Amino acid sequence: MQIEIWSVGKENDTFINEGVLHYFKKTKPYINISLELIQLPKKAATTDVQRTKQLEEEAILKRLQPHHYLILLDEKGKLHTSPQWAEQFQQLMNMGTKTVVLLIGGAFGVSENIMKQAKQKWSLSKLVFPHQLVRLLLAEQVYRAFSILHNSPYHHS
Amino acid sequence: MQIEIWSVGKENDTFINEGVLHYFKKTKPYINISLELIQLPKKAATTDVQRTKQLEEEAILKRLQPHHYLILLDEKGKLHTSPQWAEQFQQLMNMGTKTVVLLIGGAFGVSENIMKQAKQKWSLSKLVFPHQLVRLLLAEQVYRAFSILHNSPYHHS
Q: Are A82 and B155 in contact (CB < 8 Å)?
């Protein structure tokens, strides 16, 4: 199995980028993980929320393949604990999942259509965090989940 | 009012430090905020959990002053939303609170005694995050709370 974090929006600030790479490096012995930014062309920039969400939907659907298992990060999604994240990934591996896509939507969330495509919705917190910070939290949490699955001492609760 | 984040443990990795400073800078127009590390002397390092918690307790109590309003960050604490964080800070200001201390415990949590000293317990998430990342999340969330109180467009939900 491999994991791709898809995130709508602009490039990471340096500190976020360093942090994400920090955790990716630690995760690599366990599983392949990458971050892919979904960016709209600059000329598509618009203040029309519905139009923006539609353009983002198109960009996401264009990437989505049948071997992708789409999990949407959503404030209203399921609030798992860290050991539950580990269990979820274990189940996905048991199902023979090829690629798990963890999707972080844009500033206005994702379209209804993408909502429907998502197999699951997970929430990191009831708090709202900026998208860049969500990328970093996800990178750390995936590392934590796999270190739980590998009985590494990283997670002790 | 001013806010102090107290965190038991070692110096920040560079990316965490940059991130924390990034949010502190944005928060400064609204409120004074700082991060203070509570570090045990190296020779006090021990693998004895109870002893470590006791040493940490002593270090925390030595700092704690009557004008400090202590809020403990704890997994089992209250899961507020971001607007609720804003409300909480507003209430503390209304009460004439001088200094809010947001305490992040050590790897093994804090002692019973510190638990009792805490006026409130807040949780960032049901997920476990490393202490350094909690410092960064806190810095961002305090900024978000005050930008909500100041009607800045940073938070839109």
A: no
Distance CA B133, CA B89 (A): 22
For A55-109, the pLDDT digits (tens) are 999 999 999 999 999 999 998 899 999 999 999 999 999 999 999 999 999 888 8
CATH number (domain holding residue A103): 3.40.1280.10
Nearest CB neighbour to B126, from listed A16, A79, A128: A79
Flag if A22 and B15 touch (Cβ within 8 Å).
yes
Q: What angle do CA A131, A136, A138 make, to 5 degrees?
A: 90
ipTM above 0.90, yes or no: no
Domain ranges, residue B112: 15-97+105-124+147-157
Can you list the alpha helix ranges (DSSP code H) found in A4-110? 14-27, 49-63, 82-94
How many domains, in total, are found in chain B?
A: 1
A9 Ramachandran zone, left/alpha/beta (phi>0; psi -120 to 50): left
Question: Are B70 and B64 in contact, with CB atoms under 8 Å apart?
Answer: yes
